[in-house]
Every structure is written in C-alpha cells, then in structure tokens.
Design brief:
about 260 residues, 6-stranded mixed sheet, 9 helices
C-alpha cells in the first residue's frame, strides 16, 4: 500500500512539473528533419542548411522564432566546426567560453521575447539573493525582483571543470533558489507548483533545468529538461538538433511563468 501511494505521488508530481506542450512551426520541423537525415559530414550539413535558408529567407522572425533559433544556432556551431581552428576544441577559461556557448545560445533563444525578459551577465546580483554573485541572471522586464532564471558557468572548456566545482555551484544555486521560490509563493502569490529555472555550463555541456516547490511547500522537485553538448563534431551537432524541441519547451515554461506572474 505504501509503495502504491508513493507511486501515485510520484506520478502526480511528474504530471505537475511536466514541460509544456509546444507545436513547432513547419519550417522548424523541416530543418530539424533535414539534420536528422543528413550524413555525419559538416560540409554536407552546411550545404543543406544554406540551401534550406535560401528558400525560407522571408519568414517573419517573430512568427517563426523556433525556426530562426534552430537555424542560427546550428549555423553558429557549424561555422566553428569548419573553421581552421575550432575554438571549443581547446582549453578556454569560463568567461572566454561563455560568449560562444551559453550566452550566445540563450540570447538567440529569447530574442523573440526580449520584451518580457532580459539577460544580464558576469558578476550580477539579484535583490532576493542578496550578495550572491551570478554568472548570469534573467530578469522579468516588468518586475526586476522576479528572476526566473539563474545561470552558472562551472569551469571553462578543459579548464577548471571539476566535479567538485560543479557540485559546489549547483548547491549554491539551489540554496539561493529557495529564496526566489519563497518570494514567488508568498509575495507574488504564485500557485503550486512554483518553478525556478536555471542553466549550467559544465564540461562543454549545457544543462537546462528547474526546481519546483510542490506539496504545500514541503517538497523540492528537480527537473532536467535536457542537457546538450556544445557540438564539435557532426554527430554531436545531430544530437544538439534532436534536443532543440526540449530547449524550446524550457524556454516556453519560463515565458509562461513570467506571463502568469504579471497578472
């Protein structure tokens, strides 16, 4: 009986914290399908994307934001991959790596809704988390005390990327995110489950995650929407493309939360 109750409780929590459903535009589906069926050749993929862009260069950037995000990020990593010296193959400190990995990706992802949220980078602080300094913070445009996303760079590329640093950074994030959850719950009166989103860069991977306050403030639940490699090979680029829908679900969950908090 106890096992059955635990299973039902787990299923309920999973349902409450599931990513939102999204409908990809047809051009976005087409370009992702193109990458999926491509051979694992950077030159071949680049040629196919260039040809695909040529027939879709007049699409509205707001209406087809998912397509433009997919196209721009795939092209970004392909350019580095086919350059004489791909920078993300070599040791790099975290603040040098960030602009061509995490920062680039998040700016491209939220470009279509920068009237709702704004990202600020390197040694930033938030009202609710006090003196804690963050590699990146996403603020709500309407309410600067509402910070739906925290970002940390746990080391660079082949530089200071230790498990100890990763664990220390995530512990710091969760400890401070509890304060943000309490603000959302008690001041903004957000209904349960209350989300707080975060993004981590570690060992050349980017993690898109969230914690939720559920069960009348008695339980914290962590959800990993996806983790993606910053691709350095065509096969990794195909994995990156496969995870674009999951990244867009993470984005949509954040936008839904910000809009709900403005009511």
């Amino acid at each position: 009986m106890s096992g059955t109750l635990l299973e039902e409780s787990g299923a309920s929590i999973k349902s409450l914290t599931d990513p939102p459903k999204i409908e990809l535009s047809e051009p976005c589906k087409d370009i992702l399908n193109l990458i999926s069926k491509s051979s694992a050749s950077a030159t071949c993929i680049k040629s196919q994307i260039r040809s695909f862009i040529g027939t879709n260069n007049s699409l509205d950037e707001s209406e087809y934001a998912d397509y433009y995000f997919a196209e721009s990020t795939l092209h970004h990593f392909l350019q580095m991959m086919t350059s004489p010296r791909n920078p993300i193959l070599f040791p790099m400190k975290e603040r040098t790596a960030a602009p061509i990995t995490t920062i680039y990706l998040l700016h491209a992802m939220f470009l279509s809704c920068n009237d709702l949220v704004s990202f600020h980078w390197i040694e930033r602080t938030a009202d609710i988390t006090g003196a804690a300094k963050w590699d990146g913070i996403c603020f709500s445009i309407k309410d600067k005390r509402l910070t739906p996303v925290l970002i940390e760079f746990s080391g660079g590329i082949h530089f200071n990327s230790t498990t100890e640093k990763e664990q220390r950074d995530e512990s710091k994030m969760i400890r401070n995110m509890v304060k943000l959850l309490e603000y959302a719950k008690y001041v903004k009166k957000h209904k349960s489950p209350v989300p707080q989103f975060y993004c981590r860069f570690f060992n050349n991977q980017i993690f898109f995650e969230a914690i939720f306050l559920v069960d009348e403030e008695t339980r914290l639940v962590k959800r990993t929407f996806c983790k993606i490699p910053c691709p350095v090979t065509p096969r990794e680029l195909k994995i990156f493309a496969e995870n674009i829908p999951a990244m867009l679900k993470w984005k949509q969950a954040i936008i839904n939360y910000v809009i709900e908090s403005q009511k």
